[in-house]
């Protein structure tokens, strides 16, 4: 992952300000408006977009906002980008996000696979901050797979 600061410090500042403006809107339940800002921020990233550190943050903002709107099919490609561009292999958040999206889409094998990777790194702690049903779903899926 590349940092924008050395090559494009002003662009990095503009992208951060744009995402933060979207976050303010998202926090006040103005999700559709927040997505406009996240789309603008994504559009500002130089190509290839997934080479930049900020890509994961922007993608994760898209995921969370689409999930708030229960637009899970729209959230999934962003969750995949967030996972692909995460800064650390021990960052379990993108696995949890993709797992939740797949869970809501009833894509159970993919949901379990991602949640299982998160669990392998962080155990139940990895699920803190997630909806309560996610850890329960994971445990049920794990038990079902162990029985088969």
Summed over residues and divided by their number, the pLDDT gives a mean of 96
Q: What Rg is obtained from the alpha carbons, in whole angstroms?
A: 16 Å
What is the H-and-E element order?
Answer: HHHHHHHH
Shape field: globular
Could you give a short account of the major beta sheet?
A: none
Total number of β-strand segments?
A: 0
- Total helical elements: 8
- Overall tally of domains: 2
Note the topology.
Elements: H1 4-7, H2 9-27, H3 31-44, H4 54-68, H5 72-84, H6 93-104, H7 108-122, H8 132-147
Describe this protein's structure.
Helices cover 73% and strands 0% of the residues. It is mainly alpha-helical. It has 2 domains: 1-74, no CATH class; 88-148, no CATH class. Helix 5 (72-84) packs antiparallel against helix 6, helix 6 packs antiparallel against helix 7 (108-122) and helix 7 (108-122) packs across helix 8 (132-147). The model has no long low-confidence stretch (mean pLDDT 96).
What's this model, at a glance?
By secondary structure, the chain is mostly helical.
Question: Which labels suit this protein?
Answer:
0% strand; mainly alpha; single chain; 2 domains; 148 residues; 8 helices
């Amino acid at each position: 992952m590349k940092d924008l600061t050395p090559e494009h410090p002003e662009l990095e500042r503009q992208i951060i300000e744009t995402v933060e403006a979207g976050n303010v809107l998202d926090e006040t339940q103005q999700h559709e408006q927040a997505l406009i800002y996240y789309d603008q921020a994504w559009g500002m990233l130089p190509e290839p977009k997934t080479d930049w550190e900020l890509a994961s943050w922007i993608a994760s903002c898209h995921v969370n906002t689409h999930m708030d709107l229960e637009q899970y099919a729209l959230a999934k490609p962003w969750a995949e980008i967030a996972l692909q561009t995460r800064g650390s292999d021990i960052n379990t958040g993108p696995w949890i996000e993709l797992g939740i999206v797949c869970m809501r889409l009833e894509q159970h094998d993919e949901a379990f696979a991602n949640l299982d990777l998160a669990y392998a790194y962080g155990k139940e702690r990895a699920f803190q901050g997630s909806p309560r049903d996610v850890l329960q779903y994971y445990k049920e899926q794990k038990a079902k797979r162990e029985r088969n």
